[in-house]
Design brief:
With 275 residues, the chain is α/β, with parallel strands linked by helices. It contains six helices and 16 strands. It has one domain: Metallo-dependent phosphatases (Purple Acid Phosphatase, chain A, domain 2, 4-Layer Sandwich). The strands form four sheets. Strands 4-5-6-8-10-12-11 form a seven-stranded mixed beta sheet. It has a five-stranded mixed beta sheet with strand order 3-2-1-15-16, with no helix packed on it.
């Protein structure tokens, strides 16, 4: 099972870069192209939120055109920049996508794994939330997995990372209840998030929680107590998750940009140790 994860596309109306700097449409389209050309090809692409920058119908129309040409099944969850109603109307969601009580979530059994997508959007707020209905959705999906390995996808991370202005807008409401549910299910292999625009990994409630880097712009890495809310145009990247029975769940971070190579590892004849 091979799952590509991209996040934080921030699609804008044509001709309008995000924050007047980040050409998010071109950057997102390039990321889709790279994922589509992977060999072996991923079985699935999961997008973990902030599909658009403002939740506008035009933005979702642009994204839908990108997805229609992808040729890979797609599952997704919304981020704080999205709007549920516009997202639902603007995108032809995968048949496995579940609109549970108005929330954009999913449960998908893919080969040996169960994938669960959680909607952490709190309208009008940058921080995330999980209400009792969404927590019940998660608990039921985990219980019905019956011990099968599980990966949970969500936009807002449930933990502090040390970038203070991002910690202030992580998953807040329902975070303790979420941690308690996760602790009861040792078959959870990963909690996979977006939102922070940086690659970050930690232990969380008995499993591994991981944030994917953005395929557009990156939040500035500043761990000071008064870190300003700024971004850099670092090389965009994505995550590629591999699950094989007997080998477990392994994650690779890969850059979108092409690099020189590949070159063979060939030693010079007079290199010490080459004989």
């Amino acid at each position: 099972m091979l799952i590509a994860q991209i996040t934080d596309l921030h699609i804008r109306p044509r001709g309008k870069p995000a924050y007047r700097v980040s050409e998010t449409n071109a950057l997102s389209e390039r990321a889709f192209d790279v994922v589509a050309r992977l060999s072996p090809r991923p079985d699935l692409l999961v997008i973990t939120g902030d599909l658009t920058d403002c939740g506008l119908p035009e933005e979702y129309a642009i994204l839908r055109a990108m997805l229609d040409g992808l040729g890979i099944p797609v599952l997704l969850v919304p981020g704080n920049h999205d709007r549920r109603e516009t997202l639902t109307a603007g995108l032809a969601l995968d048949a496995r996508q579940v609109l549970d009580g108005g929330f954009v979530q999913f449960v998908a059994d893919c080969g040996p794994m169960r994938l669960i997508g959680l909607d952490t959007l709190l309208p009008g707020k940058s921080a995330g939330a999980l209400c009792p209905a969404r927590l019940a959705f998660l608990d039921k999906a985990l219980t019905e997995a019956d011990g099968k390995p599980v990966a949970i996808f969500m936009h807002h991370p449930p933990f502090d990372c040390g970038i203070r202005h991002m910690d202030a807008i992580r998953l807040l409401d329902g975070a303790q209840e979420f941690a308690a549910i996760v602790a009861r299910h040792p078959n959870i292999e990963r909690i996979l998030c977006g939102h922070h625009h940086r690659p970050i990994v930690t232990r969380f409630s008995g499993t591994i929680a991981q944030i994917a880097p953005s395929v557009t712009h990156a939040v500035t890495l500043n761990l000071s107590e008064a870190s300003p809310s700024t971004f850099h145009m670092e090389p965009p990247a994505y995550l590629l998750h591999s699950f094989r029975e007997g080998a477990g769940f392994v994650t690779h971070m890969a850059f979108v940009e092409r690099s020189p190579g590949p070159y063979p590892f060939v030693l010079d004849a007079d290199y010490p140790g080459s004989h």
